[in-house]
Write a structure and sequence with these properties.
Blueprint (H helix, E strand, L loop, with lengths): L1 E3 L2 H13 L4 E6 L5 H13 L2 E6 L9 H6 L4 H11 L3 E3 L3 H4 L21 H4 L3 H16 L2 E6 L3 H14 L3 E6 L19 H7 L1 H14 L5 H12 L5 E10 L15 E9 L2 E7 L12 H17 L1
Parallel strand pairs: 1-4, 2-3, 2-5, 3-4, 5-6
Antiparallel strand pairs: 7-8, 8-9
Helix pairs in contact: 7-8, 10-11
The structure holds adenosine monophosphate.
Adenosine monophosphate (AMP) binds next to helix 2 and strand 5.
């Protein structure tokens, strides 16, 4: 495994791999690696010849400097995880390496209008511009590859897809199922900041999504009714302050009033739990429930496979 700190060094390594006829995977992360990140790396390892992981806590995507300051940093552990999975290249750039003007922010940024403005974008102004800008820069450094992202950050995945398609990056975007704790809480680097009580309460997000899925399975098709179902579940946990719970169109991320085709919709939820903002999401239908106990994840994969056929 090679660790590189310069963009040039990373590009050279991946160019050489492609010149030797090897396919390249990129897994962008902010470090503090957990099983969710590992699942992306394992899939990349299975599907591509050379796997590159980037570890960069991107200052452009943090609105609050304190939030960035508090973001967990565990480089030694992260490198051990990468080595264990068999990653070939770990790219660990500094801020000036990614943004030569730093500490001045770059003059050139990438904005994806529309889908960036809703939900997480509304709650965190500028967040998705920061994400789109760093991912565009990483794609330029990595070159032709498959890039692996988590469905956990569903809106981010939609923004990255739109950016890569519209700007013509030679990158195939692969969305990977959400990895969860046994009680349903989606793994997140921020979970370590929850107190034991908050940690217990945090599972209410996935329980709210499960209740909405049950309602869809029972025939409910009203977006408002599904939102109300999710709100009611979250209201049972006083430690959790709901921001939004909605059914949206998977393409536009606009709220849907009626789920004509549940497979074309997604349930999104976000809440503040103590010091931490948590997000989660789910497909509203679960067509493999009878056969597969881990069907939520399985459906994520099937849904993603269909999307890939359309966009990949
Ligand atoms: P981050 O380091 O939080 O920026 O995340 C890096 C990548 O890991 C993103 O594509 C995330 O969507 C993905 N990711 C984060 N948490 C999970 C999870 N619980 N399951 C699957 N992927 C995840």
């Amino acid at each position: 495994m090679e660790t590189v700190e310069t963009a040039r060094g990373c590009t050279d390594l991946l160019d050489r791999a492609r010149a030797a006829g090897r396919s390249v995977a990129l897994v962008p992360t902010m470090g503090a690696l957990h099983e969710g990140h590992r699942s992306l790396m394992v899939r990349a390892r299975a599907e591509c010849d050379v796997v590159a992981v980037s570890i960069f806590v991107n200052p452009l995507q943090f609105g609050d400097p304190d939030d960035m300051e508090r973001y967990p940093r565990t480089l030694e552990h992260d490198l051990a995880v990468c080595a264990e999975v068999g990653v070939d290249v770990v790219f660990v750039p500094s801020a000036p390496e990614m943004y030569p003007s730093w500490p001045e922010p770059p003059a050139t940024t990438v904005s994806v209008r529309g889908i960036s403005e809703r939900w997480e974008g509304a709650a965190r102004p500028g967040h998705f511009d920061g994400v789109a800008t760093v991912v565009a820069a990483l794609f330029a450094i990595a070159g032709r590859c498959r890039a692996y992202f988590g469905l956990k950050d569903f809106q981010q995945l939609a923004v990255v897809r739109a950016m890569a398609t519209e700007l013509g990056f030679p990158v195939e975007i692969v969305g990977c199922p959400t990895v969860r704790e046994p009680d349903g809480l989606a793994l997140s680097s921020r979970n370590v900041r929850l107190s034991p009580g908050e940690r217990r309460a945090a599972s209410v997000l996935s329980r709210a999504l499960a209740a909405a899925r049950d309602a869809v399975a029972a025939g409910e098709r009203s977006g408002d009714a599904l939102a109300a179902t999710m709100r009611a579940v979250v209201a049972t946990e006083p430690a959790v302050r709901l921001d939004y719970a909605v059914a949206v169109d998977t393409g536009t991320l606009e709220e849907v009033r009626t789920l004509m085709d549940p497979a074309a919709a997604r349930l999104l939820i976000a809440a503040q739990v103590g010091p931490v903002r948590l997000i989660d999401n789910s497909a509203p239908v679960d067509d493999r429930a009878a056969r597969d106990p881990d069907s939520h994840t399985a459906h994520d994969g099937a849904d993603e496979a269909r999307r890939l056929e359309r966009t990949g």
